[in-house]
Amino acid sequence: MTVAPLIDNKSLITPVIGSDNLKYTPRPAIFADVPDEKWNDWRWQMANRINSIEQLEQIIDLTDEERQGLQAEGLFRADITPYFAGLLEVDDPYGPVRQQVIPKGAEAVAFDAMMADSLNEDAHSPVPGLVHRYPDRVLMLITTQCATYCRYCTRSRVVGDSSANYTRADHDRQIAYIRDNPDVRDVLLSGGDPLVVAPAILEDLLKRLSEIPHLELIRIGSRVPIFLPQRVTDELCDMLRKYHPLWLNVHVNHPREITPELSRALAKLADAGIPLGNQSVLLRGVNDHPEVQMELVHKLVKNRVRPYYLYQCDLVQGAGHFRTPVSVGIEIIEALRGHTSGFAVPTYVVDAPGGGGKIPVMPEYVVSSGPNRVVLRNYEGFITTYAEPDAPYTRDDAQMLRYLERPARDEGVQEGVSGLASGQHMTIKPEGFEEAHQRGRQDEIEKRGKRNFMDDYS
Fold first, then answer.
1. Residue 249 sits in a domain of what CATH number?
2. What is the pTM of this model?
3. Beta-sheet strands, E only, within 227-295
4. Among 69, 121, 9, which Cα is nearest to 352's?
5. Which distant-in-sequence residues (6+ apart) come within 8 Å of 17 by Cβ?
6. Mind listing the pLDDT tens digit for each residue in 293-302?
7. How far apart are CA 124 and CA 296, in angstroms?
8. What domain count does the chain have?
9. Do 129 and 245 fall within a single domain?
């Protein structure tokens, strides 16, 4: 195999392979002798992941803090595919790719409000590996394994632990729960990463889910196309297209992750009719600048991927050094809205600590409101008014709903604020509210003895 000259002391560029004339990501020099058929085999990539100081020292110039992180006992597992190692910034410890996958000693530093299960997923799991937080959809964790491990992982308490992997029996219980709950119309496969699961197992799960009559769509959340684009084969895409409607969200945090290999993988998925979205995490020193986010969303939409969510970093153990103030996320959305296509602007969300779900946190565009006017501003600071309708607003709900194929939903308490707006409820009261507001009256009754307390209110 012939190769291009060295581009620095530790990396080299692989030759252009195939007829599409697209270049390939630089290959670390320690893999120079690996035949192309192996390099492009996703199983070889998985079997040869990098996780030791000795290997990484041949690829990048490690810092003392990185060595400390790699040697520390009890830290979250480290594994990096050989392909993704080609993106590591050789002599820059603050490189945006390098920071996401190389452990640091800072991961062992505790911070205020740090949690192991910051989203309280375990409390919302009726069966192992299945999270039912929202009324009509569930999260189905099918594996604890990933191609490469992100240092800010929300599920680092379990992900990467091969001894805690989900079994066929777990999958059976998860699917049985979905089958027995007809309100569930949407299932998201996650983990770990569903695309590292053996192909036969993944197809079996998709087939069994697709046979549930009330399940309307299946989603997959995966970072495999970024860490291991070799996994996105024609065979995988042919298999996935059999189970439409199927959606896939990838996870790109920085423009440097969008390589020629990833672009080809995304094109295959899009050509298979799979709608693609992207979920990023806001990370200090990685992508917490409006210009970085602007380049990211532009590269995503060029690859037919719609920016979906920008997550505030969770309060998860080990991720304290990645966290930014919420105001930084609002600043980024402010800089994107109006300055790029509307569909290129993600929704900035805080996944509520304690299990409250995703809460959008966006710039405020409603300046004020009066009886007949709403005062609004645009991205430039231009302020205008929108006139409300003169006639009283009424809605005939029975007429509006008569053409729906499914009956109107009855979510009970989970209607939340929308239930107040529709008149279904008058108030939402915190736990213990009634008891707290009766306590003072009871004390007064006891203080006054036989006197009738209610006389005071007659």
1. 3.20.20.70
2. 0.86
3. 246-250, 276-282
4. 121
5. 24, 36, 40
6. 999 999 999 9
7. 33
8. 3
9. yes
